[in-house]
Amino acid sequence: MKQIVILTGRLYTGKSGLAKLLEREFAYEIFKVSEYLKLIASQRGLKKDRENLQNLGFDLDNESDGEWLSREVQRRIRLAENLRPLVIDSVVNKKQLEHFRHLDGVEVIHVHLYAGRVELEGRRETQDPENNIGDYFDLDNIKCEEDILYFKHDADVRINTSRTDELDTLVRVAGRLGLYSSPDIRCVDVLIGGQYGSEGKGHVAAYLAKDYDVLVRVGGPNAGHTVSSSSGLYTYHHLPSGSKDTNARLLLGPGMTIHVKTLLKEIRECNIEPDRLFIDPQAMIIDDDDRESEKSLVTSIASTGQGSGAAQARRITGRHSDKLKLAKDIEELRPYVGSEPPYRGSTLNQLEIAYFQRKLILLEGTQGSGLSIFHGVYPYVTSRDTNVGGCLAEAGISPNRIRRTLMVVRPTPIRVGNPDGGEGHTSGPLKHEVTFEEVAKSAGLEPEEVKGYERTSTTKRARRVSWFEWDQFRRACALNAPTDIVLTFADYISESNRRARRFEQLSQDTIKFVEELERIAQAPVSLINTRFVRPADGGIDLRTVIDRRNWNSFRKFED
Prior knowledge:
9-stranded mixed β-sheet; 559 residues; alpha/beta
């Protein structure tokens, strides 16, 4: 059934503003009565000034007993193939409204806006100074007080706009229209790292991305997610992994830290159009001083030095600083953020729409559980909580929206290597540290190949490696309660896994490892990455994931 929202109310009560917000935020189509009157005026050779259009409306009412407006709307509904819900921006008398009430196959919701005479006169002076001559009621299209009384009693929603602004009014109307989703719609899957980062989240996120309508990224440019796909090797620092290989809507949450130059370069390289990318106005901007202030951390804790932590700290301590910039303050980001509230880039608004439309959403976390500023081994931690709770908070997603939590681990956890390549653990301890030569020898791989690949995505620094840390894994499970485990780098257990296409083709040691992961996590290992495609692989088979999910990833939501 087609929904039609009828707006009534005197001049300057906020009807046009409400109609525009319904269009922008909820994709309603506006039927502008004044534009239709201008069309008829052209056909009849009449001038299109306010007085003539007003008189034309009166004439049409007399000619059709008020039916002309509903008749035209019904005609458009009949001719349109995919007409969106309609909002009629101004119905001015009882007869016009009654004809809408009698349309077949149409749900009519009547919204009446009102305000006091003094308030309306004041709005005329500020909003429409050119028409600030003459009596207010001479300008108003509603001439009969009986019509106002009828609207008052007939309305499905009646709002005094003296006590609300446009956004408050929108919320109240949207609630009556049923535009907000029930909190029991669980449509968000969260992908997080279970160790110290570099677990291969980017590759997994890119593999999953094709199944989702919306991709959300949190974190900052200090975390690079490298992806191997049919379009080649690419490292994402701001955009969700797989952005260039899908058509999904892309959201950068309010907890993001953004380096503008790097982000714009990424947008260009991935050919991302503004209609796909939405940057939250509250995202924090990294400046040159932030990067400069982190230079000491590069040597003390092997920080990437990208300024993300310094920007986070400045956001807390510099709330009244003129130098502090958010995404809404950056001119180059306006196409993705918007220029005024409610910003088009508002993650919360975009998520509300996605929930209502029952879109499937993938939230891509940053770094790994063991690097959490709260739960990692301090001071060898990052500047944010990297567990599922922290990622949800940065994105503005309620825990009640989660459908699945996927935690990525590798058989050989890594930490960032020391900046000078020296001994010790500047970047933090590894319980069972070994060399990549030992890992390669154990798995039957070429040591030089493994060493050449194991460099960090952002700083290109050689990594350090350890045998699996079971205690740390269980701690990550307790913090994140994953519904699914994702195992990457299965070839680091056995080189033969590179050729596996099914679970039973994995080596026996790998199968045993998977079974033990499942016992400790009390969750299935649902995805297994058998190897990563290197640039030298060229046209080699790109099937590198064994998909064991027992939940249907293609459904938009679960009943």
